[in-house]
Amino acid sequence: MTSIPIQYYLIVAAALFCIGLAVAITKRHFIGMLLGIELMLNAVNINLVAFSRHDPEKLSGQLFALFVIVVAAAEVTVALAIVLRVYSRFKTVDPDKVSELKK
Amino acid sequence: MEAIVFYIFSALTLVAALVILFSKNLIYAAFSLFVAFLGVAALYVLAGADFLGVSQIMIYVGGILVLLIFGIMLTQKGEKSDDSSRHNRVEVLMSRGIWGTLIGAGLFVFLVKIILSSDFKLAGEVNSSKSTIKTIGVELMTSHLLPFEIAAILLLVALVGAAYLALNRNPAS
User: Fold this and answer.
1) Do A49 and B52 touch (CB under 8 A)?
2) Helix/strand/coil (H, E, C) string of chain B?
3) Domain extent at residue A25
C-alpha cells in the first residue's frame, strides 16, 4: 500500500495557512478576521496530524491537535461575545472604525 | 487511488479557502468555510486520524460554524435596503488587498522553499491500519491527564465568560 509523502500534506497546510493569513488581513469585518484565524488553526492541525502518522504508538500530534480544537472553540465563543458587545456599543463591525482610544 | 482522493480533497479545501478570500458576501464566506472544514476532515481521515476527523466535523461544523453564522446575522448593518446582497457586504480597501496578497504569497513561497529543501528522517512505520480511538483514550487518561483537566476548566471559564460578556446590560436598548 503506497502512502502519500509527508511533503504533500505540508504543502497543502502551508497554502491553507497563507490563504487564512490573507483573509485575516484583507477582510474589514471582525467575523471575517475570525474566519481567517480558523483557517490558520486548521492548517496547523493538518501539519500535526501528518507528522503523527509516523508515531502510531503514542499519537502525540493527534492529541495536540485535539487540544488545539478545544482551545479554538473556547476562543471563538469569547471572541463572538466581545464582537456582539462592540457592535452594540459602536454600531459597526469595521475594526478600523473602532478607534476611540486613538483620539 | 489514495493519491487521487488526496488530490481531490486538498483541491476542494484550497478552492473553498480561496472562495472565502475573494467573496464579498460574508454569509457565502461562512458557507464556504463549511466546505473547507469538511475537506480538512477528509484529509485527517486520509492521514489515519479517524477520531480527529469525526471530532472536526462535530466541533467545527456543528459548533463553531453555527456560532459564526449567528454572529454574522446578529451584526448586520443598520440601514435597511431592498438589495439582498448588501447587508453582509465587506468592503476591501485596495491597500489592504495588496498587502494581504503580498504577505500571503511571500510567506507561501518561503514555506514551500523550506519544505522542499527539508529532509525528514522519520522513524516508525507509516500506516497503522488499526483505529486510533483506543490509543487516544488511554493517552488522554494517563500521560495527558493534566492538559485534559485544564481544557475542561478552560471550556467552563469560556462558557461563563461568554455568557457574562454577551449579557444585555441595558434592557431599554
Assistant:
1) yes
2) CHHHHHHHHHHHHHHHHHHHHHCCEHHHHHHHHHHHHHHHHHHHHHCCCHHHHHHHHHHHHHHHHHHHHHHHHHCCCCCCCCCCCCCCECCCCHHHHHHHHHHHHHHHHHHHHHHHHCCCCCCCCCCCCCCCHHHHHHHHHCCCHHHHHHHHHHHHHHHHHHHHHCCCCCCCC
3) 6-92
Q: Is the pLDDT of residue A95 over 60?
A: yes
Averaged over B100-125, what is the pLDDT? 87
Surface of A (52-91) touching B: CB under 8 A: 52-60, 62-63, 65-67, 69-78, 80-85, 87-88, 91
Residues of B with CB below 8 A from A85's CB? 165-166
pLDDT digits (tens, 9 = 90+) for B57-78: 999 888 899 989 988 888 877 6
> CB A80 to CB B2 under 8 A?
no
Residue B107 forms part of a structural domain: no
Mean pLDDT in residue range B33-48: 92
pLDDT in tens, B3-29: 899 999 999 999 999 999 988 888 899
Pairwise CB contact (< 8 Å): A39 & B3: no
Structural domain tally of chain B? 2
State percent of chain A over pLDDT 90: 52
Q: How far apart are the CA of B62 and the nearest CA of chain A, in angstroms?
A: 11
Domain contains A98: no
